[in-house]
Amino acid sequence: MVKSQNLLTEVESKELLKKAGIPVVEAKLARSKKEAISISREMGFPVVLKISSPDVVHKSDSGGVRLGLTNATQVGKAYSQITYSVKQAYPEAQIDGVSVQTMAPPGVEVIVGMSKDPQFGPVLMFGLGGILVEVLKDVSFRIVPVTERDAREMIKEIKGYPVLQGYRGQKPASIPALEQLIVKVSQFVEKNPQIKELDLNPIFAYPDKAVAVDARIILE
Amino acid sequence: MFEEKLKEFEPIFYPKSIAVIGASATSIKVGSLWVVDLRSAGFPGLIYPVGSSGGRIGDLEILPSLRLIPGEVDYVIVAVPRQSALELLDDCAAKNVKAVHFFTAGFSETDTQQGRKLEEQMLEKARQGNVRIIGPNCIGVYCPEHRIPLLMGILGEDGSVGFISQSGGIATKLVTIGIARHINYSKGVSFGNGIDLDASDFLQYLAADPKTRVIGAYLEGTRDGACLFNTMKEVAKAKPLVVWKGGRTEAGAQAALSHTGSLTSSAAIWSAMLKQAGTIEVHSLEELTDTLLIFQQLGRGRGIRAAIIGGLADGGGGNSVAAGDACMENGLKIPPLSFETKQELSKLVGEVGGILCNPVDLSQAQFRGLATLFQAIDSVVRDTVSDVVLIQEDIEILLPIYSRKGLEEINEFFIELAKRQNKPVIVVLPPGSVEAERLQIEQKLLAASIPVFCSMERAARAIYRLNQYYCWQEAK
Prior knowledge:
The structure holds 2 protein chains of 2 kinds. Chain A is α+β, with helices and mostly antiparallel strands. Helix content of chain A is about 35%, strand content about 30%. In chain A, a hairpin with a 3-residue loop joins strand 6 (about 110-115) and strand 7. The two termini of chain A are about 20 Å apart. Chain B is α/β, with parallel strands linked by helices. Chain B is built from 17 helices and 19 strands. Chain B has helices at about 5-15, 30-40, 85-95, 115-130, 170-180, 200-210, 225-240, 250-255, 260-265, 265-275, 285-300, 315-330, 340-350, 370-380, 395-420, 435-445, 455-475, and strands at about 15-20, 45-50, 55, 60, 75-80, 100, 130-135, 140, 160-165, 185-190, 215-220, 240-245, 280, 305-310, 355, 360, 390, 425-430, 450-455. Chain B has a 6-stranded mixed sheet, sandwiched between helices. The interface between A and B is medium-sized, with 28 and 24 residues.
């Protein structure tokens, strides 16, 4: 658990990103089981439930995430399980409720992040999700502001680039959509210097678009 | 671009008068060396030695204070301990000095609060007095055109390569390697701690300087990353900028991974910045000088399709195979020679015992005389499948076969060929057991504007980087 007053929740982060024109899978906050069920019905199944707490950074580690819920009964049960297990793991955490979002169809997983370099200021990072970024450190960086050309180069620079072009039957990812997303993130952090860190992880990239499935913003 | 810098920096690179603080008639002090070196280099302006000892250095009287110099002083070199720094800046301001170079060390690089505080005070005084500071902790300016040598009187020929270096040692190596390899500098500067004028200022000046056509930089860090990034972007648009960042760490590799911030490593960020700015990043003194040499000799890239002549005589086979690997592994393309060229080669040198594709091994020409060898080389160079030709000339193999006279003819032929053909010819002279002859040939070829390298790897890398710059700029 990271105790951080400056950590925006997923719902808050995604609202800001959406306003900045960055495609996200919209998430709504449910403060009760009943609310979670009604939001799920509104959005359409299957849905994903995640713990919403300013104190919990790694949501899945504490049992705070449930994927692929296909009906109201499952959503109700998941709500109780999530709040229970997070309370067990972090008794001190402030729990706002759970966020509800539709389950995005699988795509190529990528991540885009921003951190501040002491010498060069905001720096964007791009990489493939999962093992490629964690074990092989296959990521690229560019200093903000990032132009379309910079974005294109940072996408092509990673060793895992062929994965984005589609392999073993997986559909290719839209490079222009990823470029656009990176440029918009760059513009967003440039306009908002109070953002200390930003993490879009994962982003699902499809043949025609790219959407941030989870997002996190930390303010200065 | 940055034209205002030309006037601003004129007193630094073309001073009409230089005062050297810390000169002495009796002891050998650095200050005295500077005076002597400027004189022997033929510095065309006035030189004023200043020091407490009195007396003379040659026919120059040593004055006790900067304030007592009768005429105007553009530029001051300071080689006295840091305790006098602030007082000296007062003197400089009073004398209306334009710029002062502090050779003096013992400031922020000692990582003490005292050192940092003194730098702050110096900067404040300099700003008030309208004096620019170079350094402290550096060896300052090098300008062969204006006969300003580096420390120890090192002075090469005037040329078109500009450099900046945070380190005095690297600045010296750049110049001495330059003297050995015909890399001729327009001007250079070592700026040490860079408390006032730093990398960005000097890069802007070199970008504006009409004498400078390519710029090399050795950097260890920056006080203002955003300014450096923006400056490099602008400078690289105007001129090729080759950058070696020293002090790269493995921070990236050690970083914790689930988190964006922790994936950031300073070396990776520097590389990203240098690439994004359109500069050419290199990782050693060797790569820096190789790259500056090829830019100086060839001006611009014509492409990366290379024809390789791996051998001119015995033992060319394995060397040709290795040359092919070296070139491809360093980014060059090696297209097959045209059918016509292959036919011509087979007529000239025969099919047995050589390799007549690409790389080419012309070993068999040794049994048919130099005229045949030259015809064969000519036909490889003429083939339009390549943009550039690399020739491996192994002196210790050629010398016993062709003798000195034959070797001379071979190299004259290369020079004539490079002039006649509108295609860069690059010669690789691998070191071996006949170094004196090899160095002599290297000098001769370099003087004729032929780029010379001591290995195929280094030649290939330099060619690749030359082209990389123009590809990057054109793709804008």
